[in-house]
What we know:
This protein is mainly alpha-helical.
Amino acid sequence: MKGxxxxxxxxxxxxxxxxxxxxxxxxxxxxxxKNSSLIPVTISVQIYIFAMSIGTSLHAxxxxxxxxxxxxxxxxxxxxxxxxYIFYLLLMAAGLxxxxxxxxxxxxxxLPLDYLGLAYGFAHGLTLSAxxxxxxxxxxxxxxxxxxxxxxxxSAFCAVxxxxxxxxxxxxxxxxxxxxxxxxxxxxxxxxxxxxxxSYLLSVxxxxxxxF
Length: 212
């Protein structure tokens, strides 16, 4: 399984470098703007950048016909899918690291840190990433990566729509559509975990039935 995870990194090596470069550039933006309110937004974007780069990895695998080779390896189908999802978790961890860099740089520059706002930035980025990946991967696995740009956009749109819809449903208990409310945080996080887990189970089922 380690080899499968390593191959995913190799497949998107250039994309990862670009993602790190963009995330590193964004980490100093709140300092240049001298606006601490930009820190949570920047952190969310940094995490999401890494999640959205998975389309490159899947497209590279399809172009190299790696998916036809990996099923011949002594790894069960669910192990192949599990390696993908572990890789996606590592991408989100990379986003967390870059978000932490943003907070550290901002603190070093003397910007005041709102810890609740930071928590919102991290939670929002992780939630959007988990929902987007959870929607994106089963679709690409089922129908291929020819329309990966469209699937990426639709997944991102659905993730944002999910966030807004959830906030609207919770509005009677959060004094209106309050994305910063602790209840909203909790529901977003639990829903994202459930979607990500359900996506894994669905992907395993698709992979077992798919003819490569």
